[in-house]
Amino acid sequence: MDIDEYVKKHWKWSDRNTMKRILTCSPLLRVADPCFNVEQLIQEYQSRKNDQEQMIVFPELCITGFSCGDLFLNDRLLESALDGLFRFAEVTADEETVALVSLPVRIDGKVYETAALVGDGEVMAMFPRKKFSISQISRRRWFSEWDHNDEVLILDNGKEVYCCSGIVFNDTEYAVCFEAEKLDLFAEKADVVLAYASSPEYLGRSRFLREKAEKFTEKQGNLVVVLTPDMSESTGQGVCSGYAFAAENGHVLVDTALFSGESLVVEKGMAGDYSSRDLDDCELAVSIQGHGLAQRLKKIWVNKIIIGISGGLDSTQALLAGIKALDILGLPHTNLIAVTMPCFGTTSRTKSNAQKLSELCGTDFREISIRESVVQHLKDIGHDGVTADVAFENAQARERTQVLMDIANMENAIVLGTGDMSEAALGWCTYNGDHMSMYNVNCNMTKTFLRQVVRYEAEHSDNEEIAKVLLDVIDTPVSPELKPSEQDNISQKTEDILGPYEVLDRYLELLVREKKGPKDILVCAIDEFSGKYSEEELKKWLNQFIKRFFNNQFKRNCVPDGPRVIDYDLSPANGWIMTSDTSNGSFLNIV
Hints:
With about 600 residues, the protein is of the alpha/beta class. It has helices at about 5-10, 35-50, 75-90, 185, 205-220, 280-300, 315-330, 350-360, 370-380, 390-410, 420-425, 445-460, 465-475, 495-500, 500-515, 520-530, 535-550, 555; strands at about 20-25, 55, 100-105, 110-120, 120-130, 150-155, 160-165, 165-170, 170-175, 190-195, 225, 245-250, 250-255, 265, 305-310, 335-340, 365, 415, 440.
């Protein structure tokens, strides 16, 4: 059947008026559960339909969830998703409201990411994705690029469907773009572009999307509606915010608040009265951490958190993120079990701060000394118990992890990791010690940024005692406190060993985010830290950084889940990919 015959048989699209209103909606979803998801879509559709011409736009891959991974190639998921699409179509019969839903569809043996326009009880049209940018090329693992012209095809269930790049309602063209980050490359030149933004939230992302849309609509003179995946998606490597906005003729008209679950309403001919509702970077970072952890707790049916609290910077921010998650879920702060585990290097300052903060936040605070356990363990393995070597230090870190894991089993809790991205870059963590947890909220936070966030928390706290503790934590030298303390003073200062974190974090940014080589990194560092550190110091720290960065990739290749917060990442799942055996020869000792 040719296209003209198909259109004549099913609908006279030109008779339908232009949509008077576009709504975005982000319902609660379950990853890889089309039956549940379609019921949620139906409920939202039925509660929002009306007798006016309008379109409801649901998030990308809303029928399956965005983060199904290799299940996108599974027969059962594809069959269930297709059945769900036509189940949803049935409820739109005799209604004026149409809907745009998204799902993976298999056509002629290949799987395509598609958006389907549904109305009048039918699947009116499908828009298969045509291209993937370099940044999304990994998705070619599951999805093919659509390289056909507009045509009518037969789906796996025997149904006919019109696959096209756009559709016209009363001389108004509508098109779908699957990558709002690349509107200038991938968007059809339509009057209205409905655009998906595929990645999780991170600092600066919403601003970037708005700027892209403003530039595109200023040039094209059209309307763009952008929608990101919902918070109920997987939080393994990032947290989706359900953010949506509309832009027209170079200006944002309206947007939703991040993590709000709000619907966006775009009226035909509406005037823009836009004021940004962006969160401060520090506030957004805490929100990402809190929402990511909250979603993980809901997904695994756990309502308790356990954390090793040391009085240091990392565990302090992890505790605050845990409190944020409990508040989001409406759970008491006593559902966070804060455990301090003093041993050979613990000082009264850090121990006191750990206890004060935990008690002021209303957590279930516990103190468990691991000294006797570690002494016995060292004796068991033939260590003299005196020599402060690597085994002496790591035995303490691994004992602490064992204690946390076992209490988590007793309490049906999740062990919250505290290690940050700076430590991951340097390998400054004990393998299967503080290296391991069940979810790590700090995994994409550098030490320098963590200091900023904790200071922000202190300055915005309505509890003076909490603020006082947080400021003292910031002022405390960074230390693993694994070597015996001298006169109750910290004897092991990390920055004395590795170099200042402000320098190391800049090296990390230049290497990973900006893709610079060692010579350019050094030039930038000399310029930025002139008068504060000597060129010889910067060279020494850079060579040490490069050596540790390459030699410790094996630790980064097996890490717990955790949310992306900034715009570059060391996670092997969606950030830095490098084998553990990569040589540092081309990078080391050339500066």
